[in-house]
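User: Please predict the structure of the protein below. I'd like the answer in C-alpha cell form so I can feed it into my own downstream comparison script.

Assistant: Understood. Taking the following sequence of 153 residues as input:
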Amino acid sequence: MCIRAAKSSEMMLRFAAAVLIAAGGMGAGAAPADPFIHEVPPASRYAYTSDVPYAPGRSVDMPLRFDIYRPNRDSGSDPVPVVVFLNGIGAPWIRKDAHYADWAKLVTTAGLAGVTFDTEDGAVEQNFEALLSTLRAYARPWNIDPSRVAVYA
C-alpha cells in the first residue's frame, strides 16, 4: 500500500513506536514484566458516528461504511490527527469487532480520532483510498486533520 505524504509515513512510524513502547518494548519471545492493560473509555468521553457510507460496495444494496470515534473537544480547537484501523483481509464485519472498535475508542483518550471501516476482499487498497477521500470531505465538520493519518494494520 502506498502512503503518499511524508508526514503520514512519519506519523505511522511514531505511532508504531508508541505501540511498541506501550506494549513494554517486547523483543521476540520476551514477555513484558507488566502487561499493557487500559480501560476502554466510556461512551460519554468520545463522539461516535456510525455507519457512514464512503464507497459503493460490490453489491448495490451494501455500500461500504465506516465508524469514527472523536475526542470530545471544543469546536474551536485544532483539528485532531486520525488513526485508521485497517482490516487488510477484506472482511466487512471487522469494523464492529471489539478488537478494532475498542482501539478506535482508546485513541480518543490521546486526542486522536479513530476510524474502523469495511473493506472488500481484493480491493483493500482502493477501499482505503476511497476512505481517505471521504475523511477529507468530512474534515471540517468533524474537526479532523486528514493530512495527519496513521494506519494501524
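That's the full C-alpha cell string. The longest helix spans residues 124-142.
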